[in-house]
Design goal:
Largest sheet: 6 strands, mixed
Oligomer: single chain
Low-confidence stretches: 17-21, 80-94
Mean pLDDT: 84
Order of helices and strands: HEHHHHEEEHEEH
C-alpha cells in the first residue's frame, strides 16, 4: 500500500472514530430479562458497556450454573444422566464432576419440584415492552393446585432486601411473558426462585405488573436522556 493510500485510510478511520465518539449511545431494542434491573437502575453504566463491548467470558460460577441447568433439563427428560462424563480409558471427551454441582443436584432431587411434570422447560418468549423486546428465557413452568408456577433456578446466594426486590423484576417479566404467550391471566400465575445452595424456595412478596414494568423502563430512559442534555 502506498503512502498516500495509507494516509487516506488513517484519515477515514480517524473520522469514523470521531463520529462515533460524538454520537450518544442508544438503548438496544432487545433487552435480556436477566439484565432488566440493571437497565432500570443503572442505565448510564449499561449504555457505556454497550458502546464498549467486551469478549464474552465464562467464569466458574457461570459454568456451574450452566451445568446445573442442563442437568435439570435432562432430569425432567427422564434421562437422569446429567452433563458429566467419567474419564474413559483414552481420556477422550471427559469432564470432571464438580462437587458443588453434585450437591445442588441432590438438593433438587429432594425438592418440591422434582416430582412435578413441567409444562415447559427452557422456554424463550419475547415480550414487547415500552418500545423494546424483552428476552425472557424461562427455566421451568409447572401446573400445581390449579395454578401456573414459574420457577427460576438460581445457583448463587439467596438475596435479601433491595437486592431481592431488584431480582424479582426478572420473575415479574417472566410472569408477564407467560401470561401474554399462553393467555393465562397474570393473577393465576405464581413465580418463585429456587436457590440451590440453600435448597430454598424464595417467593417475592409481590411482583410488578406489566404496566409497572413498562413505567420503570420509561422512567429509566427519561432519566438517562436528561443526564445527557
Amino acid at each position: 500500500i502506498s503512502d498516500d493510500d495509507q494516509a487516506l485510510c488513517e484519515a477515514v478511520l480517524a473520522g469514523e472514530r470521531e463520529h462515533e465518539a460524538g454520537r450518544a449511545p442508544e438503548w438496544p431494542v432487545r433487552l435480556p430479562a436477566s439484565q432488566f434491573d440493571s437497565w432500570v437502575y443503572e442505565p448510564e453504566e449499561m449504555l457505556a458497556r454497550s458502546t464498549q463491548p467486551r469478549p464474552p467470558t465464562t467464569g466458574l460460577a457461570q459454568q456451574r450454573g450452566n451445568q446445573f441447568h442442563a442437568w435439570v433439563e435432562d432430569y425432567f427428560a427422564g434421562t437422569h444422566r446429567g452433563v458429566f462424563a467419567d474419564v474413559d480409558a483414552d481420556g477422550d471427551d471427559t469432564q470432571s464432576v464438580d462437587t458443588a454441582v453434585e450437591s445442588w443436584q441432590r438438593a433438587f432431587e429432594a425438592s418440591e419440584f422434582s416430582h412435578l411434570v413441567p409444562e415447559a422447560l427452557e422456554r424463550e418468549i419475547h415480550l414487547p415492552l415500552g418500545g423494546h423486546v424483552i428476552i425472557c428465557k424461562i427455566d421451568a413452568v409447572f401446573r400445581r393446585d390449579g395454578r401456573i408456577v414459574i420457577v427460576d433456578w438460581k445457583t448463587g446466594k439467596t438475596p435479601e432486601g433491595d437486592e431481592l426486590e431488584r431480582k424479582s423484576l426478572q420473575l415479574a417479566l417472566y410472569r408477564a411473558a407467560w401470561s401474554a404467550w399462553s393467555g393465562t391471566p397474570a393473577e393465576e400465575i405464581d413465580a418463585v426462585f429456587w436457590f440451590s445452595q440453600e435448597a430454598k424456595v424464595v417467593t417475592p412478596a409481590q411482583l410488578a405488573t406489566t404496566a409497572e414494568l413498562e413505567q420503570l423502563l420509561i422512567d429509566a430512559k427519561e432519566r438517562s436522556a436528561e443526564k445527557r442534555l
